[in-house]
């Protein structure tokens, strides 16, 4: 993954939403924690990377979007507590004193007939020019989300803000609601590399967690404490670290299984004072293998559908991706479809809710980063991520 590809995933690649994760975290600690997690540059892969977006200069030559040494961005991550007596849903927050919600504003003009997708950008904001300039200096927010959507009294939430570029100053300030009709302000250093959870996986019974950590030194340094919802569970952990390797493995064997769908806050403290944190909903997915495309062999719609599903099952493909070829398509979307999928042990992905199915995924959009480039009302360098805020809201809708 090269420098641009790393950044592209952060700005636009929202393709599916997991079903069933809608609960809340419990406790994490006594302080608000916020960090800036900058993109990682992989210059060694730049010779392999070429952009294929339909963007041409005035001479009709294709423009290479990504280039060596280009500026990158990153993520602002903040963990904050609802100190009030009522559930808290974050409707607004400020970055360097300016409302990000009012800054990342929608343009709902229909770009393509029949496609109702809202584009969000600072360019569409009604904020005064000086406030827009402050948001740009703070990194230019592209999209944001809070999880869980509703934070219970005493509970913790995570705010994620995607920035197109690194902030210009050594620190920025985040102002968040505290749940008591007030706010709390947090300073975020932007020039310090951060420890992080590289990935977190749950076992099928949710009684074990396999986590992978990375320290900003680039060496395999073992954390000295592991926390789950603020509770020290280090004694229940197996930690494997090798200074010659970048990634450290942590296995957490829990006293009791986690609750499916509930959010949990993970923490890892290092001897040198660094912290890694993550907020995730507990969910086991197993191996998911779906594919696009199908054949249409068969004399009847049922034969076409059966032949295709039989081939899928033979090749261990266990998710039906919305479609089948020819007459099999209508058959699979008719009353016989759910029973046929169950017969072959194949799950389904849906575009929208359907009482006849228990989908493993809801499909949000295909290749949003590529679709961003038809947003011709924006400068090409401002297009990537234009659909992201709309997709965040659509994911929330599916989770509800």
Task: List the topology elements.
Layout (H helix, E strand, L loop, with lengths): L2 H10 L3 E3 L14 E6 L35 E8 L12 E2 L2 E2 H4 L1 E3 L11 E3 L7 H9 L3 E7 L8 E8 L7 E7 L5 E7 L6 E7 L5 E7 L10 E4 L2 E2 L4 E4 L6 E7 L9 E7 L5 E7 L19 H14 L4 E2 L6 H6 L4 H8 L2 E4 L10 E3 L4 H4 L8 H4 L4 H12 L1
Describe the structure.
The protein contains nine helices and 22 strands. The protein is an alpha+beta fold and 400 residues long. A hairpin with a 6-residue loop joins strand 16 (237-240) and strand 17. Mean pLDDT is 86; it is low at 1-30.
SS class: alpha+beta
- The percent of residues in helical segments reads 10-25%
Major sheet details: 4 strands, mixed
What's the assembly state of these chains? single chain
What's the mean pLDDT score? 86
* Low-confidence residue ranges: 1-30
With strands numbered from the N-terminus, the spatial order across the biggest sheet is: 1-22-21-20
* Helix run count: 9
Beta strand %: 25-35%
Intertermini distance? 34 Å
The shape is globular
Q: Which value, in Å, is the CA radius of gyration? A: 23 Å
Number of beta strands: 22
Q: Summarize this, please?
A:
With 400 residues, the protein is an alpha+beta fold. 18% of the residues lie in helices and 28% in strands.
Which descriptors apply to this entry?
globular; 4-stranded mixed beta sheet; disordered N terminus; alpha+beta; 400 residues; 9 helices
């Amino acid at each position: 993954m090269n420098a641009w590809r790393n950044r592209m995933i952060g700005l636009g690649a929202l393709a599916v939403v997991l079903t069933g994760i809608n609960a809340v975290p419990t406790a994490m600690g006594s302080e608000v924690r916020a960090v800036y997690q900058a993109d990682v540059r992989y210059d060694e892969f730049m010779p392999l990377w070429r952009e294929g977006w339909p963007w041409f200069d005035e001479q009709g030559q294709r423009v290479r979007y990504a280039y060596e040494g280009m500026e990158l961005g990153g993520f602002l991550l903040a963990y904050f507590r609802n100190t009030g007596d009522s559930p808290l849903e974050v409707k607004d927050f400020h970055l360097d004193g300016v409302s990000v919600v009012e800054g990342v504003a929608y343009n709902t003009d229909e770009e393509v007939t029949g496609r109702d997708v809202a584009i969000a950008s600072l360019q569409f904001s009604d904020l005064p020019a000086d406030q827009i300039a402050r948001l740009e200096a703070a990194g230019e927010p592209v999209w944001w989300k809070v999880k869980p959507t509703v934070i219970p009294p005493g509970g913790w939430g995570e705010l994620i803000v995607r920035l197109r570029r690194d902030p210009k100053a050594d620190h920025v300030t985040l102002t968040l609601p505290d749940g008591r009709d007030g706010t709390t302000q947090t300073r975020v250093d932007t020039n310090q590399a951060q420890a992080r959870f590289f990935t977190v996986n749950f076992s099928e019974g949710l009684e074990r967690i396999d986590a992978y950590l990375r320290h900003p030194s680039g060496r395999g340094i073992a954390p000295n404490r592991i926390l789950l919802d603020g509770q020290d569970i280090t004694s229940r952990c197996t930690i494997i670290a090798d200074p010659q390797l970048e990634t450290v493995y942590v296995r957490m064997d829990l006293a009791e299984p986690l609750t499916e769908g509930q959010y949990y806050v993970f923490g890892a403290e290092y001897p040198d004072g660094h912290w890694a944190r993550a907020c995730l909903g507990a969910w086991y997915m197993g191996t998911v293998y779906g594919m696009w495309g199908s054949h249409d062999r068969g004399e009847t719609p049922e034969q076409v559908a059966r032949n295709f599903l039989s081939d899928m099952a033979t090749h261990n493909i266990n998710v039906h991706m919305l479609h089948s070829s020819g007459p099999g398509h209508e058959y699979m979307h008719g009353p016989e479809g759910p029973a046929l999928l169950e017969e072959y042990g194949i799950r389904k992905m849906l575009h929208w809710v359907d009482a006849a199915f228990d989908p493993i995924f809801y499909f949000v959009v295909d290749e949003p980063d590529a679709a961003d480039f038809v947003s011709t009302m924006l400068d090409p360098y401002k297009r990537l991520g234009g659909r992201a805020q709309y997709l965040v809201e659509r994911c929330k809708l599916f989770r509800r």
